[in-house]
Amino acid sequence: MADASSDPAAPVVGTLPAGPRNAITDVPGVTVGHCTLADGACQTGVTVIRPHAGDTYRNKVPAAATVLNGFGKSIGLVQVDELGVLETPLALTNTFSVGALAQAQIRAAVAANPEIGRSWPTVNPLVFECNDGFLNDIQAMAVQAPHYDAALADAGVDVAQGAVGAGRGMSSFGAKGGIGTASRVAGGYTVGALVLSNFGTPESLILAGRPLGAELDRQLKQQPEPEKGSIIMIVATDAPLDARQLRRLSLRAGTGLARTGSVYGHGSGDIALAFSTAYTVPHLADAPMPAVAMVHESKLDPLFRAAADSVEQAIVHALWHAQTVQGRAGHTRRALRDILPDLTA
């Protein structure tokens, strides 16, 4: 696991101030946990984001998603689009492990609420994925329910980045990708982002405004390939927004993504989800609904900017903190800072 505390400072995106951790966990109540599997051909894992410390099924949080390009196999987005709430923590993993984590989420929710699927409605699991099959033996389907449980138990405010959790086997721009996170403060609120970065062709890389693609392409000497990676972008805020406004916020994640050189390629699964921790929606009908004054539409622009900047910064952090990983069939993805050592000069 990369020790981010020993790394040189990463390039900074924009001029908005970051929160104290420069992480999604700067949004009050949000925690993140990882479970990393790193053994030979098995290079994968699980990352879990908890919107709050309570029971997410009983106390749902408002949320909405944007699908920029839908080459993906996530589960749960249809109900989020319809109802505008999250009912479980958010889980990230590899493509072939979505079903295992969905079952783990269902079992955890049922254990806490035995009437789910009986006198109460079923629960909507929410799992996002990227394909880590270059480094990871994805056909082994190594990720199972205990790994979800371990990531959930690991959830805290200090977030490891790079080749950890769901990001262990991910690639970006022909280099090592993975987990990145960042935050920005704007308009009196905090916006945080966490990305699972697994996208980008070498020649397209723009790092915090620096066009590095041509040099990266020269160093890697890889055969040209079409964009067929993916990225999951999770945006959290303590601003009181409803589901419609959160969908607008999630759409601005695409701005941050585009700044790094992505064109949302044909074979890419680019999905953004935004949620608010400002209030919760009770599951039980006899519990009082929250009476919350939402942010006025005319005051959303600072939050839009914060979302774009925090997503771009999170992608920078994913690349910056990644370490070189060798996995399946001897395949290797080198860390960007090993390929281009002058980045730290």
TrEMBL record:
Which residue stretches, if any, does this entry annotate as coiled coil?
Answer: none
What are the UniProt keywords, alphabetically? Aminopeptidase, Hydrolase, Protease
Pfam families annotated for this entry? Answer: Peptidase_S58
Q: Which GO terms describe its molecular function?
A: aminopeptidase activity
**Family label:** Belongs to the peptidase S58 family.
Official protein name in the record? D-aminopeptidase
Q: From which source organism is this entry?
A: Cupriavidus agavae
